[in-house]
Amino acid sequence: MNRKEIEEKVKEFLIEELEIDEEKITADAKLKDEMGIDSLDFVDIVVIVERNFGFKIKPEEMAGVDTFSKFCDYIESKIG
Amino acid sequence: MNRRVVITGMGIWSCLGTDLETVKRSLYEGKSGIGLDCDRLTYGYRSGLTGIVESPVITKQMLDRHTRAGLSEEAQYAYMASRQALAQACMDDGYLLENEVGCIFGNDSSAKPVIEASKIMDEKHDSAMLGYGLIFQSMNSTVTMNLSTIFHLRGVNFTLSAACSSGSHSIGLGYLLIKQGLQDVILCGGAQETNYYSMATFDALGAFSVRMDAPMMASRPFDRDRDGLVPSGGAAAVVLEDYDHAVARGATILAEVVGYGFSGNGCGISQPSDVGSMIAMQRALNDAGLSCNDIDYINAHATSTRQGDMYEAIALDRLFEGGRAWISSTKSMTGHECWMAGASEIVYSILMMQNDFVAPNINFENPDEYSAKLKIATSRIDTHVNTVLSNSFGFGGTNSALVIRKVERLKS
Question: Is B301 a residue of the active site?
Answer without folding.
Answer: yes
